[in-house]
Amino acid sequence: MQRLRVSQALWAMERRRPDGLEWPLDVQLDMIRDAGFDGAGVDFADLGHARIVTDTLRAHGMMWHAMCNPRTVDELKPIIAHVQELGADHINLQPNVRPYTLAECFPYLKGWQRLAADSGIPVHIETHRDRMTTDLMLTLQLLDHFPDLRLTGDLSHFLVAREFQWPVDEENHRLVHRILDRCWGFHGRVASREQVQVQISFPHQRDWVDVFMGWWEYGFRSWRARAPEDATLTFLCELGPREYAMTGADGYELSDRWMESRMLMDMVRALWARLDAEARVGHPFASAARG
To answer: What superkingdom heads the lineage (predicted)?
Structure first.
């Protein structure tokens, strides 16, 4: 039976308040557990930090994603070694390079794919600004050249980078669907055409929330149609601190981001439950993405 697992990014637990008050790491992990998240996104560049966090998560029967930002092919090697020691659902790789041409991307992707295949550890390439995948069109061209490339879809970056007009037209939906058809995991935040992260609890942001819920529904359907019956789909809630989160003149955030993280978790779980219900009654769209 296919499953959805919703995690919380540890980076998103940072507060960055003007008064400097932060939640200690053990408090953050308790909050994530008590809120009902299935796991956490963990920076694996620091082995000591990763060991402390994963020990706690493991003790509570939770899962984790190994987050990394390699600048070279070889910089993935220690991350793989850390995952071989500590485990992880998958490695989430932000390709921290900015090639000028499409061809310059190839050695990086081939090298990372080779290391992933040799280790047997799934590696997902994240769509992200200021990375190799910053541009939607170039990323689509990469998918043409690498038909087995697995993505983590953080669609907020494509929306704000390309400033899709409102309402988002069918051609841009079609391009995003091509990305979604290659996603094997998702990072969740809601953007507008001018802001990478809007407050999902504010009523006037509902239109953008609906756009993203529609994209995630398409992505979930697409994944369910191509993933094995016993596979697990991961969704990482990643509502980040400032400068992702908008702040007022006093430097404090305009919304309760921790509450919104739990709200996002509930929204995507409800979406998944609806798709499960459709599958049980034989809905025609239960196992296929709608294009």
So the answer is: Bacteria
- The tokens describing 168, both together, are 């988002």
- Round to whole Å and give the CA distance between 238 and 8: 7
CA distance 10 to 40: 6
Paired strand residues for 64: 40
Question: What are the tokens at 219?
Answer: 């992505």
Could you report the per-residue pLDDT of 70-108, keeping only the tens digit for each?
Answer: 999 999 999 999 999 999 999 999 999 999 999 999 999
Enumerate domains of the chain plus CATH numbers: 3-281 (3.20.20.150)
Long-range pairs for 44-53: beta carbons < 8 A, 24 or more residues apart: 44/68, 44/79, 44/82, 44/83, 44/86, 44/88, 44/91, 45/69, 45/79, 47/78, 47/82, 47/85, 50/82, 50/86, 51/86, 52/25, 53/10, 53/25, 53/29
Question: What type of residue is 130?
Answer: D
Which two structure tokens, joined as six digits, stand for 207?
A: 């239109």
Q: β-strand 91-93 against 39-43: which pairing, if any?
A: unpaired
Tell me the pairing of strands 63-68 and 3-9: unpaired
DSSP secondary structure letters along 104-147: HHHHHHHHHHHHHHHHT--EEEEP-TTSTT-SHHHHHHHHHH-T
The CA distance from 289 to 226, in Å, is 10
Question: What's the CA gap between 143 and 130, in Å, rounded?
Answer: 18
Residue 237: beta bridge partners?
A: 8, 188
Q: Is 168 exposed, middle or buried (0-12, 13-18, 19+ CB in 10 A)?
A: middle
